[in-house]
Amino acid sequence: MPQSEEDASVHETVTINDPVTTLKNDSEGDQPQNGGPDTTDHPQNALEGGESRSTSDEESQSDSDTEDEPPTVKYSRISKLPQSFFQRDSISCCKFSESRFLFGTHSGLLHLTHSDFSPIKTLKCHRSSIMSIYCNTEYFATASMDGTVIIGAFDDFNNLTAFDFKRPVHAVVLDDDYKTNKTFLSGGMAGEIVLSQRNWLGNRMDRVISKGNGIVSGIHKLGTVIFWMNDLGVTFFDINSKSELLNVPFESENQNGIRPDLLKPQVHFPEVDRIIIGWADNVWLFKVSLILPTAKNDITNNLGSIISSATSSLRPLPDKKVELERHFRIPLLLAGIVSFKDDQLLCLGFDYTTDLEMKFKGETPHLKTFDTMTGEEMNDEEVVIKNYEKLSINDYHLGKYIHGTSMPKYFLISATDFIMIEEFSLYDHYKWFLNHNMILKAWDLAQYLDISYEERLELGISYLNAEIEAGSIDDVGTKISKIFGPCKEEVIMNNNSDLHHYVVRQWQGVILKLINERHVNDNLIDNIPIEPRLDKSLYDTILLRYLYESDGKDKFTALLSKWDVSLYSEEIIQGHLETLVRKKDSNCAFYRERLIYTYLQSEKYSKAVPHMLEIKDKNVIHLLINNEQLIPQFTDILINIVLLPFDSPDLNGISDLSKTETKQIFKSSIRLLVVASRHISVSRIITLFEQNEANLDLNLLLLCFLEQLPTNEQTITEQFEDKMVILYSKYDSTKLLRFLKDKTSYNVEKAIDICTAQSGLYNELIYLWGKIGETKKALSIIVDELDDAVLAVDFVKSWGDVELWDFLIGYTMNKPNFVELLLQNYNALGDKYISVVQGVDDDLNINGLHRILSETLNENSLSLRVKKNIFQIVDDETNLYAKELLTIRDQGKVFEGNA
């Protein structure tokens, strides 16, 4: 039964903060040794000696001042492992699983620890070096130079099973279902791949599935695919189909040749379907893909399925395929290979070129990264291990451990040393930037770390002060904005008023420092914050600076547009502008426009209007429309405001405009007048029109205004209807008749006088005379002025006055067109039709007189016949009903008498 040893110590790591670090051997007092000149751009790492301690920051700083970028990894020495790891024995192989770490030694010991390196058990499994360790969730297996394979269960360390193969065994792999079938694969110096399992009697049965191709250097398993390494290279074998999937030969270009059996092949599984193999200077990347099985395929993961019945004539097809994705050679003899960040490989080994003799011993190992796509070397760090001069390539191991979402850890293990390698974390980068005085990079990185905002801000301020002192002010505004910019989100997120005041005070202090030292440029000004707001005095200072600079007017204008008026002291800026305007120099227009802008921004509209009128700014009209409560303040100059849209220097040209042009040009002005009528009486507005300073004829514009007054408020315009009659008669007579019919408050007599004085207003006069009952005067206008017989007849019909028919007949018997129309209106004239016929002069030429009379007679005759027929129908129906009545009356009725 293998023996076990107890080691109660726990592990302790000493982190080397700086990438260039020497760990001294306190017992021997040796000085650090370098493994040779560093030929890359990356820092050299020296690890040497017994117990570890980190060097001072000053030593680290002095060696890395030339570096512009932080290293990719940092190193820690695991210093409190069981003593037997290095003092009583040396490690020959290792295995890292998710929950356990297993270490084999050259004396045959197997150390088991938890993932934090706290000991679980130490077992004496073999008499000589353990060459291979394999484990799953329940079992572990070791293969040794003593020719044995030991298999044990994690839950029962006292029950170990030994298998003796008589020759050194280099590799072992357990079946997934080892608990049931006790099957495993092994191989080694005998050059055979041996499948061992229990037969039906419970005895071990070995079956050789491959032989005769040299020493087996390694055996590995991924699902149903097993692969091994020997003189043929790498061979992949499918468990289910019992067939070879792929063979990749070992390659070497060294003039002395490389014996593959002298170098351990390094295997890593970065994903569930990918395999990385490094062997000597070869790197292969394989992908294992699934082939969908057919109904006849017998799919299993058991190694025992490799042995099939001799009587079986059917062999299932492979359900997996292996593809070589990439292969490249690297200038490194590999002692370990694992996947690294960003599609890279982390490789441990020794520098090797084809024109140099291989060296297996006494060299310092290198830790290099390569791009998996191109094979290009990305980084190179030389690592000095304890007693490296006594170690050969097979004494080194490289492992990778990932637990949950934590950062991967890498373990560099030699026969005498144990070093943990970790990617440089964000915090490591942060500290590195600080140590190398790269303050801005450290500040930028701090946002992703658990660093308070105040601490980060102080860091940024120190950077800004250093930049200012160094005179780097070209883009200082951008830098200030970058440093202080995140404060808004931070303050809002935490609702921290104290932080807000602190940020504002610091932000303002940096800017004022630059201003006081006259370090002012556009970049600084463009990046002065709007939110959070600084003190108004700061914005005032900058605005006034540009206002009084001879070449600062464009910048002053830009800042006024960019900054809200509440940012600066509006009274101060406006006061300066007012003073400059009163000087009336060549820049007066500029000052006035900026003054207007600030007044409008601060909603001091009453102060803006006079200045807007000075420069004839038409926008003042819309300003007053939108702020109508201001209109009464500008009643006396209202007409001047109304006339602003007329661009001609000669205002007399207004009288030459048509009504359409007037309405188009003065559309906004008319709207202003309508709004003004809510605050100023219409009579006052009319007076302003009639008494304008330029003594202009603005009656057409007045008419357009009066037309736009609300029609639902009759009382507004009824007192001005006489005025509108005059205006319509002069400027838009086409609308006069409708106005006269719709309105009732005008003086009819005055309207008649106006229409009589204005030629062509006959329809209006006809309506007006008719409105006061002077129908004969109205009819006379129709007959004499319009000569419109149809209108005349319609007019008489509308009045229904018999005397008016007599007047029309007597007044028009000498007019053929009137007589003709009268004769055609037999139904309207009635008895007077005879008078018309009799009054026709024999000499009067009437078109179609015979036809008209014939049609009238025919119509009368037809009407008479129709009436007679109707009378006959009525008479017949009356007789019928009379007879029925008599018949009913002649009929008797039955009455029942009283008993």
TrEMBL record:
- The protein's predominant localisation is other
Identify the stretch(es) annotated as Disordered.
Answer: 1-75
**What is the protein name for this chain?**
Vacuolar protein sorting-associated protein 41
**Family from the record:** Belongs to the VPS41 family.
Entry GO terms, CC:
fungal-type vacuole membrane; HOPS complex; late endosome
Q: Where in the cell is it found?
A: Vacuole
What is the documented function of this protein? Required for vacuolar assembly and vacuolar traffic.
Q: Where is the composition biased (Acidic residues)?
A: 57-70
Lineage, uppermost ranks = Eukaryota, Fungi, Dikarya, Ascomycota, Saccharomycotina
Give all residue intervals belonging to the Vps41 beta-propeller domain. 74-423
According to the record, where are the CHCR repeats?
673-821
Q: Which SMART domains match?
A: CLH
